[in-house]
Recover the amino acids of this structure.
């Protein structure tokens, strides 16, 4: 077999056709990767070789058939195959020797592409900012793909003496096995058969990212072995040889056994540095437990997406492929380009389509893309819909955050994908929903003010109002999370007792408390001045026992939201201007805790400081703090709109950040320990002295989850300021809190996943673009030319005498 291998390589590398074929392959590949803008690594902007591993398969469909077409066809045409058979070699040794020679020649063609890796390494920002492990894993995938195409080409070469026919058959079979099954699966009559898994694409796309799944490895080994087996069968039929049927049967049995074994059990090897494609145990457990089909429809699609959105779409697809591999075929996904669908409609129907998508939560966004010629506008739909059993949930694929660059926001969005999809899948596939109750009876926020908060939570939870006076304790115990939204009247001792014992039994509470009475509407209605004063909620002692104190003060912060103020009249029209209001701090979450990690800024109103008290067995985590440019005013304090006319002095506002949101976890002591049960209790409730392990979150702003209400009484989305038309992260904060407080599986911990941003040095690319285009097109060809000259010189010297 070694002699066949050596003969084939020597013969091929001694011909001019070999170098012309490999040269054309490298030239076309270089143009696609470094010159053509749609697939250019330089225009893509990320330090990776994704374009190489997505483009090379299509060039392999022509390169490898050109290498293999002469392997057997030429031997048979020139009559040398019979001479070959006279040697002490079996048919299998001959075929496998030729197969290995073709694979080595494919590797020879790939070696010059390492220049691309060096170029990206040099152009990285900082230099060397490329995931080498992922590149190695992707090259393994490309090698496996080349092996399959080599086996297919060898088979095509065995069925015809004509090299052109063998080349044509190999190209057709390679294309069919790579893309044909995907095309067939899109036919209506075949959509339910999942036949795309028989094609190469479904397996190669996973491996090309740097993830080696043993099922994919088994597929490539079996496909290569199958076509080698077909080649042996063709040779035996051509020679009218009936012997050694046992060997052929054993080979076929081996292929079938490997195929079955790899489909029943599998292991994945993630070559990437951050293990970015390694699905967590929590996600695997949720996907493995699916009992009914789940369909994911992704609307971020299209041919003209900018580089960042292409990367996000690719990452979304990769994530769904990974999740699907653990779902026992219950998870299916599809990518749709809404713009293509809309373009096909009549003008009057296009608006209806936009409105229909918007009503479903699929909202178009106008994206400004920086180009060499300035800014261009692109409409994108960065959402996905997860559906199962008649329930659906919209997943927003882009996380925005004030102050971050586009690349950082995109990276945050990618880090959040596993949590976003797994959480949505769990919610739509789960049988029951946890209950969340918003208290009432103390002048809390109204249903209209909580409209979007309750509506947003209703996708994954049963949401309603809870009156602590009237609800039976047995009913209160069923509530998974109790939200106390800005009470304005004191709690009775009986209500506090029920709330305390609810916590003692493991209940979770979200406190959003205003300790100081201050309202902007009241301020405007009293001549622009109002005395803010402490509220009497009768909760201080209870919170103190749990380890928290909300102080009677107000925080002014230079990082603040704006409010509309009348600045004068022009004619008969009142002039309204938005001006910063220091008592509406905008909180930028800096904590790495999964509840607030990567959240956009949080809009607050009249927020107070929070102190923590040392309580044994209770762990405290700060979630929200003000900026370093803040100032505290103790209540009572006279608020005045005239302060808007004065420019704040930054020096007087330079103070340590103040805590305004705190998470408490552990075992809490009862507020009624060694105290009598309050009078008026009509049901039997055993007073527990200490709680089960539980958790609560305290936020010193009662309006943090209040949506604004229009003049017509219609609510705006939570976190949307209709005066400045700016959206904040309040809704996502609420959803994260709900997930964290109601789910003990640790699913929300997936939000702590971190992926390194790998960018190219755009400034260097702009100044050196032509240089690197020339390097990556000329150097690979130069390496092949140098090898050809060297090989010719050695061969000439060897046979000179």
């Amino acid at each position: 077999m070694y002699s066949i291998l050596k003969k084939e390589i020597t013969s091929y590398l001694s011909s001019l056709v070999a170098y012309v074929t490999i040269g054309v392959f490298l030239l076309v590949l270089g143009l696609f990767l470094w010159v053509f803008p749609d697939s250019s690594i330089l225009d893509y902007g990320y330090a990776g070789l994704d374009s190489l591993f997505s483009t090379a398969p299509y060039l392999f469909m022509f390169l490898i058939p050109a290498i293999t077409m002469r392997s057997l066809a030429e031997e048979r045409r020139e009559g040398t195959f019979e001479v070959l058979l006279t040697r002490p070699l079996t048919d299998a040794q001959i075929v496998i020797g030729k197969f290995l020679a073709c694979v080595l020649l494919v590797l020879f063609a790939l070696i010059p592409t390492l220049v691309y890796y060096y170029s990206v390494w040099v152009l990285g920002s900082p230099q060397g900012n490329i995931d080498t492990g992922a590149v190695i894993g992707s090259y393994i995938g490309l090698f496996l793909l080349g092996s399959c195409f080599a086996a297919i080409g060898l088979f095509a070469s065995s069925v015809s003496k004509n090299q052109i026919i063998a080349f044509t058959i190999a190209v057709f079979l390679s294309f069919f096995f790579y893309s044909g099954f995907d095309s067939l699966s899109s036919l209506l009559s075949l959509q339910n058969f999942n036949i795309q898994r028989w094609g190469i694409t479904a397996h190669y796309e996973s491996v090309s990212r740097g993830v080696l799944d043993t099922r994919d490895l088994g597929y490539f080994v079996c496909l290569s072995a199958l076509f080698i087996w077909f080649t042996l069968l063709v040779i035996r039929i051509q020679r009218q040889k009936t012997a050694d049927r046992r060997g052929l049967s054993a080979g076929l049995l081996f292929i079938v056994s490997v195929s079955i074994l790899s489909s029943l059990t599998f292991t994945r090897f993630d070559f990437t540095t951050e293990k970015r494609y390694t699905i967590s145990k929590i996600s695997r457990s949720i996907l493995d437990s699916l009992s009914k089909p789940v369909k994911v429809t992704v609307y971020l699609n299209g041919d003209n997406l900018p580089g960042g959105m292409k990367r996000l779409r690719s990452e979304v697809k990769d994530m769904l492929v990974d999740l699907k591999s653990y779902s026992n075929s219950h998870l299916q996904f599809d990518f749709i380009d809404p713009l293509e669908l809309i373009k096909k409609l009549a003008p009057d129907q296009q608006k209806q389509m936009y409105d229909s998508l918007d009503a479903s939560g699929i909202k178009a966004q106008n994206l400004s893309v920086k180009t060499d010629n300035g800014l261009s506008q692109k409409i994108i739909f960065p959402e996905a819909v997860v559906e199962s059993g008649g329930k659906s949930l919209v997943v927003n694929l882009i996380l925005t955050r004030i102050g971050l660059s586009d690349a950082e926001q995109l990276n945050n969005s990618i880090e959040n994908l596993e949590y976003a999809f797994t959480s949505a899948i769990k919610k739509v596939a789960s049988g029951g929903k946890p209950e969340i109750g918003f208290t009432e009876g103390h002048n809390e926020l109204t249903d209209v003010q909580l409209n979007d908060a309750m509506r947003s939570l209703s996708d994954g939870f049963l949401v309603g109002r809870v009156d602590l006076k009237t609800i039976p304790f047995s009913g209160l115990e069923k509530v998974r999370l109790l939200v106390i939204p800005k009470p304005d009247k004191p709690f009775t001792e009986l209500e506090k007792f029920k709330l305390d014992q609810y916590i003692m039994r493991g209940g979770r509470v979200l406190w959003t408390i205003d300790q100081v009475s201050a309202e902007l509407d009241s301020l405007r209605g009293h001549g622009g001045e109002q005395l803010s004063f402490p509220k009497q909620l009768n909760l201080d002692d209870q919170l103190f026992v749990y380890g928290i104190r909300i102080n009677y003060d107000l925080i002014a912060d230079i990082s603040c939201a704006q409010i509309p103020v009348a600045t004068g009249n022009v004619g008969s029209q009142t002039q309204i201007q938005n001006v910063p209001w220091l008592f509406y701090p905008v909180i930028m979450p800096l904590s790495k805790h999964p509840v607030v990690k990567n959240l956009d800024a949080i809009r607050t109103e009249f927020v107070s400081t929070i102190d923590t008290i040392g309580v044994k067995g209770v762990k405290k985590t700060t979630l929200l703090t003000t900026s370093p440019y803040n100032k505290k005013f103790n209540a009572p304090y006279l608020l005045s709109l005239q302060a808007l006319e004065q420019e704040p002095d930054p020096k007087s506002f330079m103070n340590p950040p103040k805590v305004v949101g705190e998470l408490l976890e552990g075992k809490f002591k009862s507020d009624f320990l060694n105290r009598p049960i309050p009078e008026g209790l009509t049901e039997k409730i055993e007073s527990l002295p200490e709680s089960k392990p539980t958790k609560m979150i305290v936020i010193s702003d009662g309006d943090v989850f209040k949506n604004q209400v229009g003049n017509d009484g219609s609510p705006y989305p939570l976190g949307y300021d209709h005066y400045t038309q700016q959206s904040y992260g309040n809704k996502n904060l609420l959803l994260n809190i709900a997930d964290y407080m109601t789910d003990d599986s640790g699913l929300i911990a997936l939000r702590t996943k971190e992926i390194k941003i790998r960018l190219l040095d755009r400034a260097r690319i702009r100044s050196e673009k032509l240089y690197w285009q020339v390097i990556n097109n000329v150097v690979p060809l130069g390496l092949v030319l140098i090898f050809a000259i060297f090989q010719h010189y050695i061969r000439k010297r060897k046979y000179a005498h």
Q: What stands out?
A: Residues 490 and 536 are 6 Å apart (CA to CA). The chain has 26 helices and 29 strands.
